[in-house]
Amino acid sequence: MQTEEKPIFAPETGDMSAEDFRRAGYEIIDWIADYSQNIEQFPVLSQIEPNWLKDNLPKSAPEKGENFAEVLKDVDRLILPAVTHWNHPNFHGLFSTSTSAAGIFGEMLSAAFDMKAMLWRTSPASTELEPVVLDWLRQMMNLPAEFKGLIYDTASISTLHALAMAREKLNLKVREKGMSGRGDLPLLRVYCSEQTHSSIDKAVILLGLGRDSLVKIPTNERFEMDSEKLREAISDDKSAGHLPFCVVATIGTTSTTSVDPIDAIADICERNNIFLHVDAAYAGSAAIVPELQPYFKGWERADSIVTNPHKWLFTPFDLSILYVKDLDLLKQTFSLVAEYLKTSETVQNQMDYGIQLGRRFRSLKLWFVMRYFGQEGLIKRLREHCRLARLFANWVDDSNDFEMLAPVPFALLCFRACPKSVEDLDALNEKIMNEINASGAAYLSHTKLNGVLAIRLSVGSIHVEERHLRKVWDLLNGKMEEVSRRGAEFAEI
Amino acid sequence: MQTEEKPIFAPETGDMSAEDFRRAGYEIIDWIADYSQNIEQFPVLSQIEPNWLKDNLPKSAPEKGENFAEVLKDVDRLILPAVTHWNHPNFHGLFSTSTSAAGIFGEMLSAAFDMKAMLWRTSPASTELEPVVLDWLRQMMNLPAEFKGLIYDTASISTLHALAMAREKLNLKVREKGMSGRGDLPLLRVYCSEQTHSSIDKAVILLGLGRDSLVKIPTNERFEMDSEKLREAISDDKSAGHLPFCVVATIGTTSTTSVDPIDAIADICERNNIFLHVDAAYAGSAAIVPELQPYFKGWERADSIVTNPHKWLFTPFDLSILYVKDLDLLKQTFSLVAEYLKTSETVQNQMDYGIQLGRRFRSLKLWFVMRYFGQEGLIKRLREHCRLARLFANWVDDSNDFEMLAPVPFALLCFRACPKSVEDLDALNEKIMNEINASGAAYLSHTKLNGVLAIRLSVGSIHVEERHLRKVWDLLNGKMEEVSRRGAEFAEI
User: Fold this and answer.
1) Interface test with B, best of A36, A84, A136 (most B CBs within 10 A)
2) Is-above-0.95 flag for pTM?
3) In CATH, what number is assigned to the domain containing residue B385?
4) ipTM of the shown complex
5) Pairwise CB contact (< 8 Å): A339 & B255
6) Has residue B291 been placed in a domain?
């Protein structure tokens, strides 16, 4: 960060002058440009020890305002070393997500407008751009027009809204009478697979349904929900007097990106009049790639679908979309209008569709991203990520020392080292992963599949190229040999 | 917006070049600088008709990527006319909130890092800066050190977490067993005043408690909760076999910024072992002003407090803080750790403290704001807003044609025109307000107090000066005379 000589001090009252804003703003733009250009120079995982940043910060806020140039210097001195670089092309942990320049521009303007999109009148731009942009994406994902989208912050919140809708649809007056102290209510039941994201657990806790209300259906050898077991579980629950009311199916589970059999599940839901929510938080973006459409077969039969452009559509965090068929049901679940929020326009007010009253102007960044890359540009990038993931899977398949542990429908791999010389493969793979992560060269995460530790490698950064995957492959092979050798040495002692 | 000649096209793959990013970035910085400098030239409320923006947007995303300069042109052409300018110094509706330059810079860097602060290792910077900055603010607000803060997006979500904690504290196994189908649970009861924000209603709906579980206690002539009536309600509920478990008291209600008698309420909560949540979403920031501390007397006795720096601390939306005494209880309410999220560090992972798994790096902007303005600068600005509000209240008091309808503890006024010549004062005031709003000169909102319509005027913009309030006062008087005269003319016909 270059700091200029002229200080940027806060005035007596009011805000920074336009001149100072320009000067510091250019500096930050330069900083971000340099940062992006040099992203590969940084260790992927921050190399600080826990509490390093905390211990280096003053214990109290400054009495007097500081020169903003000093603040920016501290971004270099204190913040940067404590950053884990999600934009690094070798960030392969969890899900590899990354922002794009267009997305950053969207956030800049959104912060400048600082609108709170509760009412149409307080934010016509946000209120009207949002449904248009979400309809653009809906078309790209090949979903029918009956799906209407709403932006929330995270998939956890989108899914929470979906489950709240499902509960409301029961017509049990839970909105008014609640569930406590009522003898007339049966045990309500929600179903998902063993591979479903923990946000479903959090949602049933929050909604007062309890974790016991969530039935986790076993998966097959491909980590897909066993729909026959779902059918049985629902049938058993009904016989026991319980009330099955919602199934959460996943396209792209978090551990392996497995795809539940949506059509079969939708059949069961239809027969039993059960609300079907599809969690496509990660994989939904991939629906824009024509040859990946088969993985989404049947999702148009869902009542609601969540997908997160902040995961795999180059949009800065946070932007999660809930597509629902019955927008009125969503409104009925949440709408409450205080006097000070009553207005005369006959318009959609977005505060009526969720727990949050104010909403950030999030559609702007998605609009920027969609226009700057175009449909073709977005498809091309996602297609390339899937190609790279398959390429890597081929390397694994062709190796005697590694093996794949799950199919690769999208751009995430689960695999492990399995050299014949080593017995405790979990320990070996954990060491390999931890040492690569600690080196800062790449970031991998793990999961457990059928009781064994699998290394997860996600391909999703806008900066990722084949050479980055080749680098990880070389690192893995090198570490595998080194750690195995060390193990052999230990054994000899 | 000046557009340069050289096009900024998306490359074949990857992201915008650093050179193009710099060019477009400078342009956006200039745009924001100009926008801020000329903010008073814009009508406060957008002047578009509903659907204008929607009708002017293409029905589908572009096939091919566009030159980014074209996108920026459309910000001027399509977005700007549809913006209601929250940063305008004459935005006095709802709560007047505004961002600051330092806050925008924070959002820029936060978007560039794009970190998801779920685990310490994925975001040490966010995980460690957050508690430090929130502790700075805690000290400024004169809260005891036992309060630990966490950042959420909105007060609705912060309060939802507080109520979920309160429910968890009951030890009724709601987290595991839920509330449906259980004969052993009494009716759970939450208490707040009639003036409490609708987010409490939404929280009890979501939590499965139902609106009937929320008891609204009447307020006195100053719109403060009647603590004697609270005591009676709790006692009656206990006699009826219900289970009172949470009271929400407010410092700075939304309609009038009235202050509930916290000490008296805390006494009742202590005697009955009831969780006390204090909603100071708006007014909490004012606790940093020493002479306003008396309004906060007793809030240190709460179990949890919500305050929103995005409301009155010049921090861009969104940034809401929940301060809690029992962080372990919050963790116990929500913590669930999936295999792929298990890490070896013995650190605080922020995903354990809430419904959302990922969190934006929100503390950065608050850190920037606190450092750039310093404690003195922030106090000075809030003090000035309160001075301006009192000044305006004096004008109202000194006028024969207007009257105050509620006390002014902070920087929000509730008043109305009351010329002797007019009978239907609600209609008159609604006309005055609507015509001023429609003109774009200022934005006022309304509420109903004791059945009559009150005009609400909030003073909170970082750009507001005495002349802006003088302008509104002149507008009000002019409109009052004009509308009254028109009314008289109608009457004569």
Assistant:
1) A84
2) yes
3) 3.90.1150.170
4) 0.96
5) yes
6) yes
